[in-house]
Amino acid sequence: MHNFMTRRNAIRSMVGSSILLPGILSELLAEETKSSLTEGPLTPKAPHFTAKAKRVIFLFATGGVSHIDSFDPKPSANGRDGSGKDKLMGSVFPYSPNKKCGTEVSDLFPQLREQMEDICVIRSMKSAHFDHTEAAVGMHTGSPTFARPSMGSWLSYGLGTINQNLPSFIVVAPHLPYGGTQVYASDFLPAYHQGTRVIPGKHPIENLAPLTTRQDIQQLELGLTEAFNRGHLKLRQDDTQLAARIKSFETAFQMQTAGPEAFDVNTEDDKTLEAYALKRGENTGFGWQCLVARRLAERGVRFIELIDTGSRPNWDSHGEMKEHVPLAKAVDQPIAALIKDLKQRSMLDETLIVWATEFGRTPTKEGKNGRGHHGNCFSIWLAGGGIKGGIVHGETDEIGKEIVSDKVDVHDLHATILHLMGIDHTKLTYRHAGRDFRLTDVHGNVIKNVIA
User: One short Pfam family name for this protein (predicted)?
Assistant: First the structure.
């Protein structure tokens, strides 16, 4: 006798035991048939036009990385050592060019510098705000002051996901950045589009293992729960939170197998682990995050975000720029390894990598040898997924205070990311509170010069 209990069999069994009335049975089975014929909320959707990228890996450096000391060299000569009356301070760390494309990168990122032929540096980025929380939320959602869905949620809503056994939007973060969960929230979009947070460690997602090892019993429990949930939802079709809760049960069940396998980097060979600066058995650190990002990308996750630090300690170096050194060392090799690994596996062309921070830092000295917040200009970079490698877009003035050409704001960046994913940012809308909302609001221009 076959003991595997499907949802449909569970419902019929409950009727036979007088748990459910026949009338309820017919409704639930009809709903079962209907739901099996309709697309799920995360079913892959066609883009507006042919996409250059299939997925995004978003790397976020919390705290405000100094553009002057990383990707936008400014000479420290001619009295710009911070000792003058104006306290102007040029680049603290030496710069060298990439040997193939000539893009200059500071000694903070020596291994990343070797990958510049695949990277487009944008030196003319303008922040959404000059305070951490507003700027971080603005970078993720396009709105520094009002709660809005995050970029990952919009892409989940617009494109769905290839692997139905994993969430469409995963955030790998040991600590939350400024702005907390708002940076991956879905806000007014259906809640199943919000990011699923993964915390590096022995158990990246808590409570993933089932309480029972009996698959038939678990199927019966889930079938009963789903039966009542669907019946409840039928009378409340506009309740997206309820629909999301039902979807979360389904995804959680599927992740019991897919999740542990995706996060188990010990299946990788020694050469790969070494490339990401990982020791066998390690399950923390940015190397682990980057390797997991590659594994999630392989498994069809649409949007993957890696957050390297939380609200403290981070890149917010007010007192001493040398605080940037250990932070850069922790991410330099893993990010370079991620780019090389994706390229070796022929995945870089279809994977858009975006590295960003919330704002830059002042060209003037603060504290002993630090810098203050600076939103007027800073640097980010993009690689893979339809991006021109080996180029620099935009320019700042001689001290790194203002943008002098090709300004890029957050809406432009978002419009470009959506474009590379095959989405017209003006057409990706959601009706809420009587109006159509979009990630770029009423702004945004695609940065055509950075697209291959």
Answer: DUF1501
For tokens 């921070």, the residue is 357
**Token pair for 206:** 């808590």
Residue 338 lies in a domain: yes
Residue with tokens 């300690």: 313
What pLDDT, on a 0 to 100 scale, did the predictor assign at position 241?
58
- Measured between its terminal Cα atoms, the distance across the chain in Å is 60
Instruction: Indicate which CATH number applies to the domain containing 51.
Output: 3.40.720.10
Crossing angle of the two packed helices 132-141 and 151-159, in degrees rounded to 10: 10
C-alpha 438: how far from chain center: 18
Does residue 237 carry a pLDDT above 60?
A: no
Strand partners, 397: none
Q: Does the residue 153 lie in any domain?
A: yes
Residue 253: what pLDDT? 60
pLDDT in tens, 16-65: 444 444 444 444 444 443 443 346 778 899 999 999 999 999 999 999 99
Which residue type, as a one-letter code, is found at position 149? P
Single-letter code of the amino acid located at 348: L
Instruction: Indicate the SS3 state at residue 417.
Output: helix
Domain count within the chain: 1
> Which range marks the domain in which residue 344 is found?
43-200+284-450
Is residue 21, in this structure, part of any structural domain at all? no
User: Global pTM?
Assistant: 0.86
